[in-house]
Amino acid sequence: MTTSTTIRIHTEGGALVTEQVALEVPSDGWVRVRVHASGICGADVRTALAHEAGGPVTPGHEVAGVIEERGRGVEGWSVGDRVSVGWFGGSCGTCSACLAGDVVHCPARKVPGISYPGGWAETITVPAHALARIPDGMTFEQAAPLGCAGVTVFTALQAVPLLPGSPVAIFGIGGLGHLAVQYAAALGYEVTAIARGAERAESARALGASAFTDSTVHQPGRTLSDRGGVAHIISTSSSTAPIAELLRGLRPHGTLTVIGADAGAISIPAGQLVMNALSIRGHLTGSPRDIETVMRFAQDTNAHARIEVLPLEEAAEGLRRVRDGEARFRVVLDASEAR
After folding, report:
1. b vs e for 104-115, b when ≥16 Cβ sit within 10 Å of the residue's Cβ?
2. Is residue 318 within a helix (H) or strand (E), and if so which, with residue range?
3. Number of CB atoms found within 10 A of residue 245's CB
């Protein structure tokens, strides 16, 4: 095989097209991965609409597959290894952030689908240090979303260490939130899920939530406060508008972590922060090591992503479902059917 079936966008807001692209020979320190599964993330919607990189764009930063070819100097990895690539797609390795182990905040970090062609293809070529090892027994379809959605919410939970039994709340139980609810419950926390519509209460409890709040009926921050407040709120919604009200639901010394965000601003009374010693923090994602940790955690606790699988050639339909909110949780493209 000398070409790879690849999904590309050529113009801003343009249509996704399926093309045959010449196989890339990995350069020094890079590997080519034969893609088996690739997720569709909300960030891919923005990439597709904004056409953030110059030239043709291939989105996709939730990738799972098998190493097919190694460039020179690659150590610790072999052809045939099962690997994942997430939103973190490489770093410089020499800046202060990298030397401190904080590779995701490297100023020169790379993102698959933006910095180089992403995973909506039969193959992807990436820096070897962006790889995470998929544990035995985990399917490619389950591994793919953990490279972005899974590792993001898992590391957000770990960044605020709490004792088992501590009350936490997850705002939004879609593609990110449904994983956050499962992980928080598996960590032993008392979880309140907050979402729009009473019909989501049943699925929230099935995911491990002990309580549910319908944000179309109740002010979630006030409701949490009336119940005694929580120690940690993770907001996975793409809107910043609810943040100020959510803050009311924190106990003293509580933390609100913002994962989902838009171009809006957050306006919060300073007195509220000071009088209750509250913290509000943003959170990006995790490293390849973190991806390996969350994959093992998900496997050990049976906290798996709820996925819809579509053939690679139906990427446009999958993107539409995510963009229009029709996809309940995660959509994964099966690249094996393209072969």
Report:
1. bebeebbbbbbb
2. helix 315-323
3. 13
**What average pLDDT does the segment 308-313 reach?**
96
Shortest CA distance to 195 belongs to which of 237, 251, 239?
237
Q: What is the DSSP letter of 105?
A: G
Q: What is the pLDDT of residues 117-176, one digit of tens each?
A: 999 999 999 999 999 999 999 999 999 999 999 999 999 999 999 999 999 999 999 999
Q: Compute the distance between CA of residue 92 and CA of residue 134 in angstroms, rounded to an integer.
A: 24
Q: How far apart are CA 267 and CA 84, in angstroms?
A: 38
Please state, in angstroms and rounded to a whole number, the distance separating the CA atoms of residues 121 and 338: 9
CA-nearest of 229, 228, 257 to 243 is 257
Distances (CA, A) of 181 to 1, 163, 269, 286: 43, 16, 29, 18
Q: What is the pLDDT of residue 1?
A: 66
The per-residue pLDDT of the chain, averaged, comes to 93
State the burial class of residue 322 (Cβ atoms within 10 Å of its Cβ: 0-12, 13-18, 19+): buried
**For residue 94, what are the contacts with CB-CB under 8 A and spacing of at least 6?**
none
For residue 6 the two structure tokens come to: 């690849």
Q: Please report, as a single letter, which amino acid is at residue 85.
A: V
Give the pair of three-digit tokens for residue 59.
């989105």
Pairing state between β 132-133 and 230-235: unpaired
246-294 pLDDT per residue, tens: 999 999 999 999 998 787 888 888 888 999 999 999 999 999 999 999 9
Task: State the CB neighbour count (10 A cutoff) for residue 135.
Answer: 14
Phi, psi of 3 (to 5 degrees): -130, 165
